[in-house]
Specification:
- By secondary structure, this protein is of the alpha/beta class.
- Helix content is 45%, strand content 10%.
- α9 runs antiparallel to α10 (232-247).
- It has a domain at 21-156 and 292-457.
- The strands form two sheets. A five-stranded parallel sheet has the order 1-2-5-6-7, with helices on both faces. Strands 3-4 form a two-stranded antiparallel sheet.
- Belongs to the peptidase S33 family.
- GO terms for molecular function: hydrolase activity.
- Residues 350-371 are annotated as: Disordered.
């Protein structure tokens, strides 16, 4: 396992100190604290015996997207073998059946990947182009930037998200609680929110609840708004209600809407999604999280990327400035993603043979698209205002996959990925026809949404 801490309580204490330090842009002290914590985690993970075999090999050296792509390939073969053998009674699988398994055509992967899942799908496609069935890459990561440990091509459309938040709030009238009788244009809502955020930078709010003191800082609200940008239909009305309450000095309403310390929406406050989902007729819960997710995620993103441990604190400050130029609101949150990579130990990094760094792309004949049998098809999907995977990434990654059999769908909406959280019958129709009928939309097809977040309030 990838865990570096001997017990979960130690990890929790580490995370508490990290959160308490605030944002990397707050002060030199905040940055120095977070830098030291990242160095400490790197030292801990390089010295732990957990996940280290007797020969000294570290399991973290195998934590990479390349390894997962091989796992996916193996799973397609196992699933196909089980499908064939399931036709026979247990214990009476004949030699002829085994021969069918051995001589069957290589099974293909049908896949729908979101966000990081687009990098995983792109890796699989580039490594095994002849094993692509029908693949959707939705909310597309720039693979070359990711493998460079850059994370510099994510926030280019982030400002569009917040412009739409304020514009749609204005259009919603009194259903959006940031919109009062004095509001004449959407920029007044934007100014009101910006004024409050700037005040919060120097004036954290103390909130007393059940005899405990909680602090709401600017960085906390940054992270809350960042998460809200992923799912406008679920969270934007709640966010507007919470911001309106805070602006009026009403902390009790805000704390009734969002969880303490994490400041994420309380599940009981999230509205049911009014969506058309042609693939599911029931709601399945997300799998539970696991304690060592911190180390696992760091091992994956730092191991997939280039070694940047030679970069100094001064280099990091320049990097922070670059991201702040892209998004004043989310830049500091995004800059923390690669902070741990600057101290990630070489002993925990995968070897070159366990990393895939490209080239990312395929040719039509490699995918077998020329057979016209509905396989070897790829569909890229991008939103016009995605907070972390801008539309330009979808175009860039699609260009690497040449020939017919590659489509690109543009969804006119804010939010991260088309997924299941954005209402568009047009998009769902394209996705359904792609998987069911091997039908690709025309290049650059655009889909509108069917309603806006406040329409159901």
């Amino acid at each position: 396992m990838a865990s570096c801490f001997e017990e979960d309580g130690a990890r929790s204490r580490f995370e508490i100190v990290d959160v308490s330090a605030g944002s990397v842009e707050d002060s030199a002290s905040s940055l120095n604290t977070k830098w030291a914590l990242a160095e400490g985690l790197g030292k801990l993970c390089s010295s732990t015996d957990a996940g280290v075999w007797p020969d000294g090999t570290d399991i973290r050296q195998y934590v990479s997207t390349l390894q997962v792509a091989y796992d996916m390939l193996h799973l397609t073969e196992v699933i196909e073998e089980e499908r064939i053998l399931s036709r026979y009674e247990v214990g009476v699988v004949t030699e002829a059946a085994q021969q069918i398994v051995k001589t069957k055509p290589q099974p293909l992967l049908n896949y729908w990947g979101f966000s990081y899942g687009t990098y995983l799908g792109n890796t699989f496609a580039s490594m095994f182009p002849d094993r692509i069935g029908r693949m959707i890459l939705d909310g597309v990561v720039d693979a070359s930037d990711y493998t460079a440990s850059g994370w510099r091509t994510n926030l280019q459309d982030n400002h569009k998200v917040w412009r739409l938040f304020h514009q749609w709030c204005f259009e919603a009238g009194p259903r959006c609680l940031l919109n009062d009788n004095s509001t004449k244009e959407w920029t007044q809502i934007e100014s009101k929110v910006d004024k409050f955020l700037n005040h919060l930078k120097s004036n954290p709010l103390s909130i007393v609840f059940r005899h405990r003191i909680y602090l709401l800082r600017y960085f906390d609200l940054e992270k809350l708004m960042h998460s809200a940008s992923y799912a406008p239909w679920q969270v934007w009305p709640l966010l507007a209600q919470g911001l309106a309450a805070l602006i009026q000095g009403d902390t009790s309403t805000f704390t009734s809407l969002f969880e303490f310390s994490t400041w994420i929406p309380r599940p009981s406050n999230l509205p049911p999604l009014q969506l058309l989902n042609p693939f599911n007729n029931h709601s399945a819960p997300y799998p539970p999280s696991y304690p060592s997710g911190l180390e696992a995620s760091i091992a994956i993103l730092c191991g997939d990327g280039e070694d940047i441990t030679s970069e100094s604190k001064s280099d990091y400050l320049s990097y922070l400035d670059e991201l702040l130029d892209q998004s004043q609101l989310i830049g500091p949150v995004w800059a923390e993603i690669t902070l741990h990579c600057r101290s990630w130990p070489k002993s925990a990094r995968p070897s070159s043979r366990n990393r895939f760094t490209g080239p990312f792309g395929t040719k039509a004949h490699e995918r077998g698209t020329g057979k016209d049998d509905g396989t070897g098809l790829m569909l890229f999907i991008g939103n016009t205002a995605d907070p972390v995977t801008p539309l330009q990434n979808a175009y860039k990654m699609a260009e690497g996959h040449e020939g017919k059999g590659v489509g690109l769908l543009v969804q006119e909406t804010p939010g991260h990925c088309s997924g299941v959280n954005i209402p568009s019958q047009c998009t769902w129709g394209v996705i359904s026809r792609f998987f069911n009928n091997a039908e690709l939309p025309e290049r650059d097809k655009r889909c509108e949404i069917d309603w806006k977040p406040w329409d159901m309030v």
